[in-house]
Design a protein that fits this description.
12 helices; 2 domains; 19% strand; alpha+beta; five-stranded mixed beta sheet
Length: 310
């Protein structure tokens, strides 16, 4: 059993202040029982997020920053035959043109339905297929593309870009130039599409671009990994809604973390990885005995301070 929790430690000061108000008795109980098994230290400018790196380590994947094959894994989960091809996830998105930068709106705000998604996908697919790509529709917000150039192409995770300037995340890899050209053609194609005209008439955001991420051929996930990725903190963290983030933490305490604590008390092999935007910390291994737990509590910093470096 390995529970991975993304966005467990806010990066903005407003989020850190909110985190300091939380009481987290179940997490504290887990800190008493489980030793720290490892830390992943990085910065907020890595292409792959700490929770993606944690998942890749637990799954036994190979790959450098920005080349972890999440697209192929999601494509297989959507029922596609990924074979030996290198895949990318094409997420339909809205780029917001501000006075000083272009930022990417959280795709959850698009309220995209299946009919609109399929119509836009068909238009985009024709564009990519003309350039020798294989395209597949995997869901309302998940389109997939396969091409040999994606085998080792580093790309930024969507979670890195939401709410931020897209220019900082487009990448300078030589293989990214071809993608940027295709991306520009996608934007021109979508600009006048009938689906977007209809959406805008209803006050909805247009789908004016795609974000390309998770490139590479599929790799097997270790059969013993037992990974659960709990993403309930993601949306409020990306939106900067720290009140909602705190409420989500409460549900995390009452649900998954309490289940992990119960598993520890049953003597099961358990790992808990808490991730921020820079790094992560993992608790796991043989549970501490009574005197070790007492000693561990002595002079220990609160959970919020412990997680802040992440």
């Amino acid at each position: 059993m390995h529970l991975i929790v993304p966005f467990a430690a806010p990066l903005p000061e407003e989020g850190r202040a909110a985190a300091r108000t939380l009481a987290r008795p179940v997490l504290e109980a887990l800190r008493d029982r489980l030793p720290e098994a490892g830390r992943d230290e990085g910065d907020e400018w890595s292409l792959s997020t700490p929770h993606e790196r944690a998942y890749a380590r637990a799954a036994g994947w190979r790959g450098s920053d920005g080349t972890l094959p999440f697209a192929a894994e999601q494509a297989a989960a959507a029922g596609l035959d990924t074979g030996d091809l290198a895949w990318a996830l094409l997420t339909p998105v809205h780029w917001h043109l501000g006075t000083e930068q272009v930022s990417l709106v959280d795709p959850a705000q698009l309220q995209l339905d299946e009919a609109a998604s399929r119509a836009l996908f068909e238009a985009v697919a024709a564009l990519f297929q003309d350039d020798g790509w294989l395209l597949a529709w995997g869901g309302v917000g998940a389109w997939f593309a396969a091409h040999e150039s994606l085998a080792d192409l580093p790309t930024a995770s969507l979670d890195r870009v939401v709410g931020r300037n897209v220019d900082a995340w487009l990448g300078s890899h030589p293989g990214a130039r071809r993608l940027r050209r295709l991306q520009a053609e996608v934007q021109m194609l979508l600009h006048g599409h009938a689906v977007n005209a209809e959406r805008e008439s209803r006050g909805l955001l247009s789908v004016n671009s795609v974000w390309i991420s998770g490139c590479g051929p599929r790799q097997p996930v270790s059969a013993t990994a037992g990974i659960t990725l709990d993403t309930r903190l993601r949306a409020p963290a990306l939106a900067g809604d720290w009140a909602a983030w705190c409420k989500a933490w409460d549900t995390l305490e009452d649900g998954p973390l309490r289940a992990v604590l119960a598993a520890v008390e049953q003597g099961r092999d358990v790992q808990l990885t808490l991730c921020g935007e820079r790094g992560s910390v993992t608790l796991g291994g043989a549970p501490r005995g009574g005197w070790q737990r007492w000693w561990q509590r002595w002079g220990r910093e609160p959970a919020a301070r412990w997680l802040e470096p992440l």
